[in-house]
Design brief:
Layout (H helix, E strand, L loop, with lengths): L1 H28 L3 E9 L5 H10 L6 H10 L8 E9 H9 L6 E5 L6 H7 L3 H11 L2 H10 L20 E5 H4 L4 H17 L12 H14 L6 H13 L10 H4 L13 H4 L24 H8 L8 E4 L5 E4 L2 H11 L2
Antiparallel strand pairs: 1-2, 3-4, 5-6
Helix pairs in contact: 1-3, 2-3, 5-6, 6-9, 10-11, 10-14, 11-14
Length: about 350
């Protein structure tokens, strides 16, 4: 009898420990954020198929914890639909799967060659657009962002959040887009995505560039070369120019100093603007890097700077078909200009 009661006590203790562990995991999972462009529920799908989809797409990394969560949280009547989520809690995620009518989400795409001026232009409401632009350089807001996301402190003291809004498609509630708080939501969502994409990057490089210098150069590469195979070669040319006290000669950068959209930039590519040294973003006239990134680069552009490809070229130009042509010296560049730009 004594042995049986002892075994029973042990089993009860084990059950209590297991229960508390499961409850603890449940509480942690409630704080997990779901971000996915599209989550499709087909006819006949149930909780098991939803869990499998979350795990297979790696939206949730710990599948065991997810089972624990759904054990404590009764989830019934999952509705057939295509859902969109942008950094929603797991509780809200499952709530939406059972809700009718559903909240409508709207796409908001930040393109790879967009600046804050392009994003502001994309926001139709002028008042909200101006709030967005103000926040991008607001010292207190930037300080709060860095405090909330310590990873950004590694980029030292920032004067702008340009370069940290990761180019991607995001989904927001329709009501969000009309709110004066939307700029904060957009910036924080895009920065979280940037951190997620770049957190595991090894930023060390043979040219001893700081993280912020890498980000500035990668933002230039983003606009200068769209072909992912050519990016590391263009990046290496720009790095060597910078390290050898050359002018970067990336004409597009000057438009950032003029505070105009990328779409309107080509109108300013003539001598009056190209020779203006007072424009700190004019890399045609000045021997330095721009003070901040000039576009929001993708992971591919950032990697192209960190892992740039050594080459003997110092110049490049693009033909009308977008194909790149390299040159080792001024004479070669002049030949390419005569051959491809005439």
């Amino acid at each position: 009898m004594w042995k049986k009661s002892k075994i029973l006590k042990i089993l009860v203790i084990c059950f209590i420990i297991l229960w508390f562990y499961q409850y603890y995991e449940y509480q942690n999972l409630k704080n997990i954020k779901i971000s996915t462009n599209e989550f499709k529920i087909n006819k006949g799908d149930n909780l098991t198929t939803v869990r499998n989809q979350l795990c297979n797409k790696k939206i949730i990394n710990n599948c065991l914890d997810l089972k624990i969560y759904t054990y404590f949280h009764k989830i019934n009547n999952i509705k057939t639909w295509i859902y969109y989520f942008s950094w929603e809690s797991l509780t809200w995620f499952f709530y939406q799967l059972q809700k009718w009518p559903r909240i409508k989400y709207v796409k908001f795409t930040i393109l790879p060659w967009w600046t804050k001026f392009d994003i502001a232009n994309y926001i139709k409401n002028k008042q909200i657009s101006q709030i967005f632009l103000n926040l991008m350089t607001n010292k207190q807001f930037i300080k709060n962002i860095q405090n909330n996301y310590p990873f950004l402190k590694e980029f030292w003291k920032l004067s702008s959040l340009e370069g940290f809004l990761y180019p991607d498609t995001y989904f927001f509630k329709k009501s969000d887009l009309k709110s004066s708080l939307f700029p904060q939501l957009l910036i924080k969502t895009a920065i979280k995505n940037f951190i997620k994409k770049t957190k595991k990057l090894n930023w060390k490089n043979k040219y001893n560039l700081t993280k912020y210098q890498i980000l500035i150069l990668s933002s230039i590469v983003q606009k200068e070369e769209r072909n992912i195979q050519n990016k590391p070669y263009v990046a290496n040319i720009l790095i060597r120019r910078y390290k050898n006290n050359w002018k970067i000669w990336a004409d597009w950068t000057l438009c950032y100093g003029l505070k105009i959209t990328s779409k309107n930039c080509s109108k300013y590519m003539f001598n009056k603007y190209l020779q203006n040294k007072s424009n700190k973003y004019n890399t045609r006239a000045n021997i330095w890097l721009p003070p901040t990134p000039v576009w929001n680069p993708t992971l591919g552009s950032i990697k192209s700077v960190i892992y740039s490809k050594e080459n003997n070229y110092w110049f490049y130009l693009h033909w009308t078909d977008g194909k790149i042509h390299y040159a080792k010296n001024n004479a070669g560049q002049t030949t390419n200009k005569y051959k491809y730009l005439k």
